[in-house]
Design goal:
This protein is 34% helix and 20% strand. The chain is of the alpha/beta class and 460 residues long. The chain is elongated and about 80 Å long. Residues 307-314 form the Cytosol aminopeptidase domain.
Length: 460
C-alpha cells in the first residue's frame, strides 16, 4: 500500500490534539454542547483516546485525539498514532494542539500506523488519512515510511518464502527501481572468495550467496553490510524450539540495510552507496560445518568454531573484509547478532558500537530526533583476549557467556582495518508487542538515525 499523505485540498475534518493536563482549559473555550459531549463520552485526553464531535444534522464537525501528558509522551513514541486507528477512515487536518517540534515525528507515526502485512491473510482495510502538518517535509516522511514498510515486509515473510534466492530477488527489485547495479556471487566463486559465507550456508539446499548492490557516482563512499541469515536452526548446535520460533527474522540486518538503501536512493542523497548482504540458511545436514572446525576467512584470519549457532558474525566477517578492501569513508554493519544485546537493552533500543566520537554523537542525537532510539555500547579492549582461542586467530563463541554482544562486535571489528569509520548495530528487528505505529512483527531499527547522522557527518 502507498504510504502517502492526503491531498492538501481534500475535504478534511479538523483534528484537535488535546493534552490531558490542559483538557479543562480547552473545554472552557468550546460551546457547552461540545463540553457536554466530551464529558459524556468519558474523553480524558489520554494517549490513544479518540472522539468524533457531532455537528449540525448529526454530521461530524471535528475530532479529538488524546495527547496524554508530557511525561506520558516521553514513555510512548508516536502518541498521535495511538489514536489514529480509532478515528475511522476519514481525512483529517490537524487544527490545534500539535507542538511544531513534534510535527514530523507524529506525521511519520501516522503513516507507519497504516502498515498491514496481508500477504497470507486479511486485506488492506481503509485507514484514516492525514493532510501533512504545516512545516514538515512531507515527501521525506513518505519516503521514510515506505522504506520502513519494505523492512517490515521482508522480516515478516516466513523463511518458506524468504530464503537466499528471495532475498536476492528483493535486492534486484530495489536495484531495478532505482537504477542501481547488482552482482551476486555464489557456487564455486563463493567457496573460493568468501569461504565462511559458503561454510555457513553449504548445508542447506538453498544455495548461499553474496549480494552486492551499488548506486551513485559522487559523494562519500558508504557501505552497508546486513546479515542475511534467512533462517537459523543453530546448525549442529541446534537451537531449542523456543529459540528457533522467531528465526525467520534472522535476516533482519539485511532487511534494515535494504530499507535504508531504499531511503537513500529515493531521497537522491549524493553518495557512493554499496550494499553487501551475505544471504544464507544455517541448516542441519551431513555437510554442515562443525564445532571445532577451523575456517579461514576472506581476510586470511582463521576462526575456531566453538558454536555453530554463532554463525552471523562469520558471514558478516567475509562481507566486511570485502567492504574494507575499498576503504570507504564509512562501513555500517547491521545484524540480529546476539541475545546478549536484548538482555542488555531490550527490544526497543538498538545498541551500536563505534570508535569514532563525532559519529557516535551524531548517531545518538539523530536517533532522538528521528524517534529511532539508539544506545552506544563499548568496544571494550580488555575483552579482546576472550576472542583469541590460541589454536586459531579468533574464536566465534567465547566460553563463559558474559559480554556476548561486546565480544561479537570486537570479532567483527577485526575485519575492518583500513576504513576510517566503522559502526556496528546489534539489532532485534522485531516488535514483540503492539505499540503506536509499530504493530507486532518486523520493525526497522537504526535506519532513520543513520540517515540523520550521515547528513550531519558528511553534510549531505
Amino acid at each position: 500500500m502507498p504510504f502517502r499523505f492526503a491531498d492538501p485540498q481534500a475535504d478534511a475534518l479538523p483534528l484537535h490534539l488535546v493534552d490531558s493536563a490542559t483538557l479543562a482549559d480547552w473545554l472552557a473555550t468550546q460551546p457547552e454542547t461540545v463540553s457536554a459531549w466530551v464529558e459524556a463520552n468519558g474523553f480524558t485526553g489520554a494517549i490513544g483516546e479518540a472522539l468524533i464531535l457531532p455537528g449540525e444534522a448529526g454530521k461530524p464537525s471535528a475530532a479529538l485525539a488524546g495527547y496524554g501528558t508530557f511525561k506520558a509522551r516521553r514513555r510512548s513514541r508516536f502518541a498521535l498514532a495511538a489514536a489514529a486507528p480509532r478515528l475511522g477512515a476519514r481525512t483529517y487536518r490537524i487544527a490545534s494542539g500539535l507542538p511544531p517540534e513534534a510535527a514530523a515525528e507524529e506525521a511519520l507515526g501516522w503513516l507507519l500506523a497504516t502498515y498491514r502485512f496481508t500477504r497470507y491473510a486479511g486485506s488492506e482495510a481503509a485507514a484514516p488519512a492525514l493532510i501533512a502538518p504545516e512545516g514538515v517535509d512531507a515527501a521525506r516522511i513518505e519516503i521514510l515510511a515506505e522504506a520502513e514498510a519494505l523492512t517490515r515486509d521482508l522480516v515478516n515473510t516466513p523463511a518458506s518464502d524468504m530464503g537466499p534466492q528471495e532475498l536476492e530477488e528483493a535486492a534486484r527489485a530495489l536495484a531495478t527501481e532505482f537504477g542501481a547495479a547488482i552482482e551476486v556471487t555464489s557456487g564455486a566463486a563463493l567457496k573460493e572468495n568468501f569461504p565462511m559465507i559458503h561454510a555457513v550456508g553449504r548445508a542447506s539446499p538453498r544455495a548461499p550467496r553474496l549480494i552486492d548492490l551499488r548506486w551513485g557516482s559522487e559523494g562519500p563512499a558508504i557501505t552497508l553490510v546486513g546479515k542475511g541469515v534467512c533462517f537459523d536452526t543453530g546448525g549442529l548446535n541446534i537451537k531449542p524450539g523456543s529459540s528457533m520460533g522467531l528465526m525467520k527474522k534472522d535476516m533482519g540486518g539485511a532487511a534494515n540495510v535494504l530499507g535504508l538503501a531504499r531511503a537513500i536512493m529515493a531521497l537522491g542523497l549524493k553518495m557512493r552507496l554499496r550494499v553487501l548482504i551475505p544471504a544464507v540458511e544455517n541448516a542441519v545436514s551431513g555437510d554442515a560445518f562443525r564445532p571445532q572446525d577451523i575456517l579461514t576467512s576472506r581476510k586470511g584470519l582463521t576462526v575456531e568454531i566453538n558454536n555453530t549457532d554463532a554463525e552471523g558474525r562469520l558471514v558478516l566477517a567475509d562481507a566486511l573484509a570485502l567492504a574494507d578492501e575499498e576503504t570507504p569513508e564509512l562501513i555500517v554493519s547491521m545484524a540480529t547478532l546476539t541475545g546478549a544485546a536484548r538482555v542488555a537493552v531490550g527490544p526497543d533500543l538498538a545498541p551500536f558500537y563505534t570508535d569514532d566520537e563525532p559519529l557516535a554523537a551524531a548517531l545518538s542525537l539523530a536517533g532522538t530526533d528521528a524517534a529511532d532510539p539508539l544506545w552506544r555500547m563499548p568496544f571494550w579492549e580488555p575483552y579482546e583476549a576472550k576472542i583469541e582461542p590460541g589454536i586459531a586467530d579468533l574464536d566465534n563463541a567465547p566460553a563463559g557467556g558474559m559480554a556476548g554482544s561486546i565480544t561479537a562486535a570486537l570479532f567483527l571489528r577485526r575485519f575492518v582495518t583500513e576504513s576510517p569509520r566503522y559502526v556496528h548495530f546489534d539489532i532485534y528487528a522485531w516488535n514483540p508487542a503492539p505499540a503506536p505505529a509499530r504493530p507486532k512483527g518486523g520493525v526497522g531499527q537504526g535506519p532513520r538515525a543513520i540517515l540523520g547522522a550521515l547528513s550531519q557527518v558528511f553534510e549531505l
